[in-house]
Amino acid sequence: MPPGEKQKELHAHEARVLPRGAVTNAKERAQVRTIQDVPVELLLEIFRIHATRCKDTGSPTAWMGILLVCRYWHRVACDAAELWRVIHVGKNTDWFLLCLKRSARSLMDLHFSGLPTATVEAAVALVIPHAQRIRAIHLTGHGWLSADVCTLFAQPLPALEELSILPAEWRSPREAKLVPWDRGYRGLHSLALSGVSIPRDPAFYCKLRTLELHERCCTINQFTIDDLVLVLNAAASTLEELDLSRFQPIFDRDTQSAPKPPLPNVCLSRLRGFYLYDEFPIASHLNKHLTLPRGAFLHLRVYVMHADQLRYTNGTAVLADIVPPGVRHVLDDVTDLAVSIDRNSYSIRAPSTSLNVAPSSSASDNRQGSESDGPPIDRVRIDTLGWIPDRKPGLRAVLTVYTSGRLTSLSITLGGSEYTLAEWRTLFGAFRMLEKLAIVDHSHLDPTDAFVALSASTDSDPGSAQAVRGDDRALSGSVENVLCPALRTLHLEGRVQGHRIEALFDALCSALRTRAGLGLRLEFLCVDCSRASGLTCAELGVHASVLKPLVKSLVVR
Q1: Can you give the residue range of the structural domain that contains 61?
Q2: At a CB cut-off of 8 Å and minimum separation 6, what does 209 contact?
Q3: pLDDT tens column, 98-141
Q4: CATH label of the domain that carries residue 532
Q5: In Å, how far are 289, 316, 337 from 401, measured between CA atoms?
Q6: Do 386 and 308 meet the contact criterion of CB atoms below 8 Å apart?
Q7: What gap in Å lies between CA 132 and CA 198, rounded to an integer?
Q8: 544 part of a folded domain
Q9: Gyration radius from the chain CA atoms
Q10: Which PANTHER family match (predicted)?
């Protein structure tokens, strides 16, 4: 068929099949719009969205691949100053100069990440002529910074809103007076420092939305724990993120010193995340002045020295000072709780259930994975370390931190510790809405007293013979008198000693039989004692056959 004939035939076919007016002529069909016909404003918006997504992937310069698509894209991108305002400084000074030129008169965000000191100093010399345009400076992952870097901060920085100086792993060999705070910096909204002295004037912090302070920041200016309370009070109306991990303000332990004026109670009503990793005296002194909003992220990691434990009657009182009423308010809406009690540690955690609250970007890099990358981060994480075995908080201590009765899921991980029937009854008695319970102990699983507590009535004497045996007569016949009446799922996991296997299964069967008699049959039971010594598959099957009629769904392994 000659050239063009096939096209004519197709047009003739369309004219026969399509309704009148639906057939376009050949000239209109040939006028196909190209990427060059897209308005510059629309193309720039596409570039901005693409650049933003690339920054979120951990490759902040990946968006520059658009420069290689065609000359038109290259020209549009190079002329758009807003695309070049965030500059990640590298070892190539020519490229850095080009970025400074293309950013034109836009405000700049400068990122110096993991660069040698010499490279940072060379870049500082190039950026000084543009100091008026600097909106953010982020010096992270570096070694010791020389005095030459001070020349940058000696310049007027009227547009500066964000400042981060964080050496690798926050480790700094000594404190430096790197920033002349008296030169202004009143427009700061975000401040993150480690190894840099900080000002004591509370008014300096009144506009901050993010405050992150770490090691070696307090000696030169004699910044005390009381100064910290006053600083937080000044920033209370704006502060959204607070990270004080390994921050050690000067703390006067002398109780015989002259009396000081009372410190204010600080209500951080807009706070979305509070992170503290420190020793007990600092944590307890600071936290008693704070009131946090419900639903905020709370991560506490506190080391309790032996001397501090001996000043209290028991570990529960110590825990109450670490998480005073204004701080434990964060847990009011928690419905899922995990408690872990080991030889010298005591932890309480609640997973994140809200996407509206997220940890700060700078702090989350040093913790767990984010919501979108890796396992979900715990919204509440209270870790206490250094306990003397006989001073360690028990099961009842959970009720000191968590005072709401809305709990529906509870996981208890024990490191070989055994607790009395009275402790189990007190714990279960506070959670009438509990639906899911997990007890895990990989060293010595023996929750016999927990089973007895679940089968006894709320008004029976915990020391009575009926309560100890889990006898049906210990119940008054009313569901309202049973502990955890809403319990539907029970998970047991751990190593059971051979001589305790029979007693454990007998106590479990007795509890399930009692609850089933009142119409409180479990929907799911999982018993994972695969590490049990001397227990064969056949013996497991025998125990499973006894448990099966008492629950709706059973897994024994």
Answers
A1: 49-79
A2: 189, 190, 238, 239, 240, 241
A3: 888 878 888 988 988 888 878 888 888 889 999 999 999 998 87
A4: 3.80.10
A5: 16, 9, 11
A6: no
A7: 23
A8: yes
A9: 32
A10: F-BOX AND LEUCINE-RICH REPEAT PROTEIN 6, F-BOX DOMAIN CONTAINING PROTEIN, EXPRESSED
pLDDT on residue 405 = 83
Q: Where are the beta strands (DSSP E) in 62-113?
A: 86-88, 108-113
- pLDDT tens for 209-224 read 999 999 889 999 999 9
Task: Enter the tokens of residue 411.
Answer: 């996981």
Q: Which residue carries 């895990």 as its tokens?
A: 440
287-309 as b/e: b if 16+ CB within 10 A: bbbbbbbebbbbbbbbebeeebb
Q: How far apart are CA 393 and CA 316, in angstroms?
A: 5
Least confident of 99-103, 280-284, 296-300: 99-103
Is residue 462 one of the residues assigned to a domain?
Answer: yes
Residue range 144-194, pLDDT digits in tens: 676 778 888 888 899 999 999 988 766 777 888 888 888 778 889 999 999
Run of H or E including 453: helix 448-455
Number of domains in the chain: 2
Asked if residue 458 belongs to a domain, the reply is yes
pLDDT at 373 over 50: no
- What's the residue count for the chain? 557
Kindly tell me the sign of the dihedral angle through the C-alpha atoms of 235, 240, 241, 242: positive
Q: Look up the pTM and report it.
A: 0.81
Q: Helix, strand or coil for residue 291?
A: strand
DSSP per residue, 381-396 = EEEEE---GGGS--GG
User: Using the 8-state DSSP alphabet, how is residue 293 labeled?
Assistant: P
Structure tokens at 545: 């056959």
**The pLDDT of residue 461:** 53
pLDDT tens track for 422-473: 999 999 999 989 999 999 987 777 788 888 888 866 555 544 444 444 444 4
The answer to whether residues 212 and 363 touch, using CB atoms and an 8 Å cutoff, is: yes
Residue whose pair of structure tokens reads 């089933």 in the numeric block: 516
Among residues 64, 79, 94, the one where a domain terminates is 79
CA distance 151 to 241: 29
**How many other β-carbons are positioned within 10 Å of the β-carbon of residue 79?**
13
Cα 143 to Cα 515: distance, rounded to the nearest angstrom = 63
> What is the pLDDT, as a whole number, of residue 82?
72
Q: Using CB atoms within 10 Å of the CB of residue 397, give its burial: 0 to 12 exposed, 13 to 18 middle, 19+ buried.
A: buried
Residue 501 resides in a domain: yes
If you average pLDDT over every residue of the chain, what do you get? Answer: 80
* Cβ neighbour number for residue 70 with a 10 Å cutoff: 13
